[in-house]
Design brief:
Blueprint lengths: L22 H14 L4 H13 L1 E4 L7 H12 L4 H7 L9 E4 L4 H7 L7 E4 L10 H14 L3 E5 L2 H5 L3 H15 L3 E5 L8 H13 L4 E3 L11 H18 L4 E3 L7 H15 L11 E3 L1 H15 L12
Parallel strand pairs: 1-2, 1-8, 2-3, 3-4, 4-5, 5-6, 6-7
Helix pairs in contact: 1-10, 2-11, 2-12, 6-8, 8-9, 9-10, 10-11
């Protein structure tokens, strides 16, 4: 990462306990993001290539196998067909920001990505519910790190948010950060289950105070996952945290992000709210799998003037 790692701060409740997020106003602002700015032609192609480099290419299925993870890693290394890269005039094949898998698949992914420079991320802490004893969740983090994980995506205990038990939430996340060691920690807030945007803001702030390197919207398993209003609330929180501390925190929307259009929308959010620094993989990631296929499809159309049949694009 090109910036100083967030060391966290002592729990400071007055940074967030009186913040009330106006949902209608937030939704209006989010709705204007994609209508006020239009990205077309070569500029759209450039934004889509950038989205690839910010993607955590993910498989978190109950039937994951070594072979599936190896295919995913091959796609992460070469996300575009050679003729698309040539047609775009790119000097090198772009690579995804990371590959994200379950802890038991970390070693497979690490081997498949050797010498690629692509980090391996792993979910942990009883993903997706997180309802396991804390010592077991910490042991899972340590297992994933021992297997070679470079990044750990943890989940918070939602009940601590509902009960406004900020000390318990802070202590839990701080212990997880310590267990991560040198691995960077992304704190999943499961925003679709937090009920209010004010809860989302508070949980974001506690996670950052406890030392999170990234805050992440969703596990992808909730009824509602990443949305632009929730994302706007979270990036305003990390902007406020940065203003107070001087530290830059990353942001990862995940779940339900499937299309090239989505990739453009979330990048516009980051550019409008936080600036160009948050258009790089060290501060912004998509949690996605199918989105990459649509990006490749759109770039094929840009290069050739036609959409290719789906079987022409290698799948993960």
């Amino acid at each position: 990462m090109m910036h100083a790692r967030n060391p966290g701060t002592p729990l400071t409740v007055d940074w967030f306990d009186r913040v009330q997020v106006n949902r209608p106003a937030t939704e209006r602002r989010a709705n204007t993001l994609t209508t006020r700015r239009s990205v077309k032609k070569q500029f759209q192609a450039a934004w889509l290539v950038n989205a690839i480099t910010c993607t955590d290419l993910t498989t978190l299925a109950g039937d994951d196998t070594d072979a599936r993870v190896e295919r995913l890693c091959a796609k992460a290394r070469r996300p575009l067909a050679d003729h698309i890269v040539e047609g775009l005039g790119l000097p090198d094949m772009p690579k995804t920001g990371a590959v994200c898998v379950y802890p038991t698949m970390v070693a497979t992914a690490k081997h498949a990505l050797s010498n690629s420079g692509i980090p391996v991320a792993s979910v942990a802490t009883g993903f997706p519910a997180g309802l396991m004893p804390l010592d077991m969740r910490l042991a899972e983090i340590r297992y994933a790190v021992d297997q070679g994980a470079d990044e750990i995506d943890i989940v918070i205990t939602r009940a601590h948010v509902f009960n406004a038990n900020w000390t318990a939430l802070y202590d839990e996340i701080a212990a997880m950060r310590e267990a991560c060691g040198a691995a960077h920690m992304k704190a999943i807030l499961a925003t679709g289950e937090l009920t209010t945007l004010s809860n989302v803001y508070a949980a974001s702030m506690v996670a950052m105070q406890a030392g999170a390197d990234f805050i992440k919207t969703s596990t992808g398993k909730e009824p509602v996952n990443a949305t632009l209003p929730v994302s706007l609330t979270m990036v305003r929180a990390l902007r406020d945290y940065g203003d107070r501390t001087g530290y830059k925190i990353g942001f990862k929307p995940a779940g339900g992000i499937k299309t090239a259009k989505d990739a453009i929308a979330w990048q516009i959010l980051m550019k409008e709210e936080l600036g160009r620094d948050w258009l790089r993989g060290d501060l912004f990631r998509f949690g996605a799998s199918s989105m990459l296929g649509d990006i490749e499809r759109q770039l094929e159309h840009y290069v050739t003037g036609r959409y290719a049949a789906s079987h022409r694009h290698a799948i993960a």
